[in-house]
Each structure stands twice: as C-alpha cells, then as structure tokens.
Amino acid sequence: MPWTDEELVAKSISGDADSFNELVLRWERPIYALAYRTIGREEDARDVCQETFLRAFRALPGFRGQAKFSSWLYRIALNLCRDWVRRERRTPVVQPPEDVDLIEMAAAAEPSESIEDLVARKDLSRLVERAMALLPEEQRTAIVLKEYHGLTFQEIAELVGCPLSTVKTRLYQGLTVLRRELAKNQKAQL
Amino acid sequence: MTDSSFCGYDGDREDALTACLYDDGTDGPERALFEAHLFTCASCREELAALRGVRSQLARWAPPEPAIGTIHNPPPAIRNPQSASASASAMPWWRQVPAWAQVAAALLFLGVSAAIANLDVRYDASGLNVRTGWMQTPAAAPIGGAPAGGGTAALTSTDAATPWRAELAALEQQLRAEMRSVRTAAAQPPAAMRAAAPMSDADLVKRVRALVDESEKRQQRELALRVAEVVRDVATQRQADLVKIDRTLGVVQNNLGVEVLRDRQRLDILYRASQRQ
User: Fold this and answer.
1) CB environment B112-128: b (16+ within 10 A), e (fewer)
2) In contact, B43 and B6? CB cutoff 8 Å
3) Cα distance from B78 to chain A (closest Cα, Å)?
4) Which of A47, A172, B124, B188 has the least C-beta neighbours within 10 A?
C-alpha cells in the first residue's frame, strides 16, 4: 500500500530524503500544470514548479499538517504565480505550443486518432488557451483549480482566501466569459 | 452577461447554477429547489447546458508535456545518491569508482609515500622505533654496551634474540607482492569488465536505434500534422477566395447589366429618332 502524503511528509521531516522525492514525483505534474495554466509560459511554469518544491522542502519542518499537503503545495505555487504576474507587470500570456509540443501531442495521441482529429483537438486547445488568457487572474485561478485540479469550493476558498460564495461567482463569471469567447472564436473559424 | 431575463428564480441564481454545474457534494435545500426550478425554466436549462459545453471544451486544454525529468531536478540537499539508477550520472566521479580500485589506490599511495619518506620501522630491545628521511642513522646501540664497531655482530645477536624480525620481513615481502599485483591490476581493467564492454556497446547501439526510430516516427507524425494544417489552411483560403471572387463577379455582372441597359436605352432612342426621320 503506498504511503499517504502525510506519512511521507512525516518521514521527510525526520530526515528521509527519499520520502520527499516521492512527494515530488507525485505532485510535480499537477503543480507544473497549475503553473502553466496560470501564467501560460512553459519555461516559467517549470521554474515556478521547481521553486515550489524548493520552498516546500525548506519550509517542511514548519508544516504542522493543519492543511492537506497538496493544499499547502498549491498555496505556495499560487503565491509564486501571483508574484510572477506582478513582477512581469502584465497579464499572463498563453503561448501557442512550441514545435516540440506538437510532436509530443502527436506521439501522445491515440493511434486511432486521425490527423484531422488531432488538428481539430489542437485548434480547440489553442482556442481555450486564448480565451483563458482573457480572464482576470482570480477567475482564471478559480477555474483552473476547479476544472483541472478538482478542488472543492471550500478548498478553493481557503486557498485563495475569499468567501465560498465569491468562489462560485468567480467561476460563474469566468465560465460565462469563456462561453462567449469560445462561441465567438468558433464562429470566426467557420 | 447573464441570461436570466426570463427567469423567476428567487435565490442566488449564479450560485445555484454553479453548484448544479459542479457536483461538489454540497447538496442542500437550495440545490433541490433549483433542480425543481429547472423543470419549469427553459432559460436556466439552456444556460446550464451551455456551461456544461464550456466545461467539456475546457477539458481539451492540456498543458504541454515537459520532457521527463525536466520539471524537477532535485537539488543535492534532497537528492538521495543511492536510490535511482538515473541519478548515477549525477553522482560525484569518485562514487563511481569501484571499491576495489579505491582500496588499490589507497595501498599504492601508502606504499609510494612510505618509499619516498624512507619509512623505517624497528622494534628491538629499546622499543618501537619509527624513522623517516634519508639521513644516515647511527647504528643501534648494542645490547650490553658493546662498542659501535661491532654492529654486525650485534645485529646477528639481535636477530637471534628477536624471532619476530623474520616474520616482519615475511610480512614486508607479502605486502610488496600485494602492492605489485595491485599495481598490475590498476594498469589493466579486470577480465569481467573487458567482457562486459561489448555488451554495453550493443545495448547502447540498440538504444540509439530505438531513439532514432522513435524520432523518425515523431517526425513523420509532425510532418503529417503540418501537411494536414497546410491542407486545411489552403482549403480555408480557397473558400475565402471563392467567396471574394463570387462577390466581385456579382459586382461586375451588376455593372455590366447596368451598362447593357443603358446601351439598350441609347439604341432605343437612336432607333426612335431614325424612325421619325
């Protein structure tokens, strides 16, 4: 039976480096995905991801388990993303995937998926990226945490530090903007 | 922004719609009320369906997959040097040298150091003597106050009195033999290592081939992807051009029609004028 996050944290605190590496392996992709969807730059998302784990490692002795380890990690990552946005003094820019990404997408695609389907999927992914980039930071964060990380309303509220009803409002408003933008883009493509 | 112009829901509509959209385990009387409201309100039903559509589109957005191991490279402080084989390359060079070679190197170093320092260890009646350096040492004082000139005799008598000297000499010989063998071993790699080398080469070649094959497949896929994109772009452009041409032709035809009409009118006027004359 695999160790729980909390057990691995306890072992890490007592000096077991393997346990922390296990936590990194377990959470690096979600954290990278969160960073990428929030700031929209591959390189910076990787940096944020690394910095998140470094900070977590340094702060681990102070972690008392008052929140879930994942929530704690998300909070660190979100703070770093927020710092990044402020430092850059601009809204996040979602880049179109680089060439290497196209290859990986193609490689990762199901063998039965035709090239046409792949192109359509990629187009849609790009449309979603563009539409997400238009959202204000707090709406985008709420949507990313809910849609892609499956956090509850309560968890999001605690993470971003706002009332639960605000989280719902941000989600609703964000989704409404996305609905409009996606419909507009799809019409433009036809 | 909201499509609630025809909705008579009493509660917080946005809140209820969001709660209904995400099954968040927050069931309550409000949720039940809103679900009952949905049966009667087409506007809310429509909006809920549209938002579900947005969610299904959002699910298609995947961040680019970074190459394996590029996201997190654990810093030395949290890296376990003995765990993964992948971390072997990150180990310091001295950790990659086999233990036997390290022992051999240590012995060799000790031997060479002892030789350079002219280490001289003696254990006789006067106790343990350790001397280093190349200075000529005075002969050991003979037992019983014998004169200095009778050194050989004194040594012989000492040899006889100390049987451990022979053992020490044997030990020295043994050590020298071991050091010689270690030097030889260090000069050429062991047989097992020599046998293993071609194996690892074959593995390497196999791995490189696999990588090349994989790369070719990726390139083919990418090419196909690019071609499909170009074909789609060309088709879109062609469609746009056809529409443009159609419109232009329509304008031209209209202009021509007007011109033809005017010509006919002119001809009619001329014809009537000629009739009158």
Assistant:
1) eeeeeeeeeeeebeeee
2) yes
3) 5
4) B188
Answer whether B65 sits within 8 Å of A101, measured CB to CB: yes
Mutate to test the interface with B, among A25, A53, A179 (most CBs of B within 10 A): A179
CA–CA dist A72, A58 (Å, integer): 13
Encoded tokens for B58 = 């959002």
Note the ipTM here. Answer: 0.70
CB nearest to B1's CB, from A45, A119, A176: A176
> Quick one: CA dihedral A120, A122, A123, A128, positive or negative?
positive
pTM of the model: 0.49
Number of folded domains that form chain B? 3
Asked if residue B108 is part of any domain, the answer here is yes
Q: Are the Cβ atoms of A121 and B61 closer than 8 angstroms?
A: no
Mean pLDDT in residue range B160-174 = 73
Number of domains in chain A: 2
Compute the nearest-CA separation of A178 from chain B (Å): 7
Tens-place pLDDT, residues A121-169? 777 788 888 888 889 989 999 999 998 888 889 889 988 899 988 999 9
Q: Identify whether A10 is part of a domain.
A: yes
| Contacts of A165 by beta carbon, 8 Å cutoff, 6+ apart | B12, B15
Tokens standing for residue B204? 């390497």
